[in-house]
Design goal:
By secondary structure, this protein is an alpha+beta fold. The chain has eight helices and seven strands. Helix 2 packs antiparallel against helix 4.
Length: 250
């Protein structure tokens, strides 16, 4: 009887946590977006009103400074919207049913590259894929989402290169696992700060250099952990980055 009572309490706690997460998702996806929409839309209206003033007033230093303030406000509001989107993606990845199957890594990479076609357009990008990429035990949708983030970062941080070089390889590491690596010749990062890479809203580069709000790798970590996998990154400033995944095989 005591064990049954404890089991019932545990189930109730799980149900309460699920309800709390649902409430969080509702608040994030709707309630927090409404004031952000007001900030961006009314900022636009203010700029339009100021633009209708006489030319000598619009060109005055005081009004130009006010317009700069409005631009900063708008940029910050849009950035907060992206942060909310990132938190939602992480929460959904945490809660999504895990439907693992045998997934060919080469096919998953091809699908992720198709999603990233816009980021590759107009650039010279050389992809080097090992000919024997393995199959993984994974939820196909979540694996694709992870690869979009990792390959998207490789494309983003190689924009300063005349030719972007992205290498994708794999090797067995024992215990039914395989190490998948994605290596690029991009800007890299200070290895002393590698521990912060997978934290939420953690960034190692200024926003003026590279866009993003610091949720992509946090999302990757959640997806990897749900599969019993591990993810890590190594890099050197000016010498690129290598992301390593240790993933279960079927």
């Amino acid at each position: 009887e005591a064990l049954r009572a404890e089991l019932a309490r545990s189930r109730q706690q799980v149900a309460d946590m699920a309800a709390a997460q649902e409430e969080f998702l509702r608040a994030v996806s709707h309630d927090l977006r409404a004031p952000l929409r007001h900030v961006t839309s009314y900022g636009t209206l203010v700029r339009e009103v100021l633009g209708d003033l006489p030319a000598e007033v619009v060109q005055s230093p005081a009004l130009q400074e006010a317009l700069e303030f409005l631009a900063t406000m708008d940029q910050s509001a849009r950035r907060m919207g992206l942060m909310i989107d990132g938190l939602l993606a992480i929460t959904r990845a945490t809660r999504a049913p895990l439907r693992c199957e045998t997934v060919a890594l080469a096919d998953a990479v091809a699908q992720a590259r198709a999603d990233l076609a816009g980021a590759e357009a107009g650039r010279e990008v050389q992809w080097h894929l090992a000919p024997d990429l393995p199959v993984l035990d994974a939820d196909a949708g979540l694996l694709r989402e992870l690869l979009v983030q990792v390959l998207g970062n490789a494309l983003k941080f190689t924009r300063g290169q005349a030719v972007a070089q992205i290498h994708i390889g794999a090797e067995p590491v024992g215990d039914g696992r395989v190490a998948v690596t994605v290596r690029d010749n991009g800007t890299g990062f200070d290895p002393a700060r590698a521990g912060a890479l997978f934290g939420v809203f953690q960034r190692l580069h200024r926003e003026t250099e590279f866009e993003g709000v610091g949720t992509g790798l946090a999302l990757c970590r959640v997806i990897a952990q749900r599969h019993g996998a591990q993810i890590a990154a190594a890099g050197t400033l000016g010498e690129g980055c290598t992301v390593r995944l240790e993933w279960p095989q079927p």
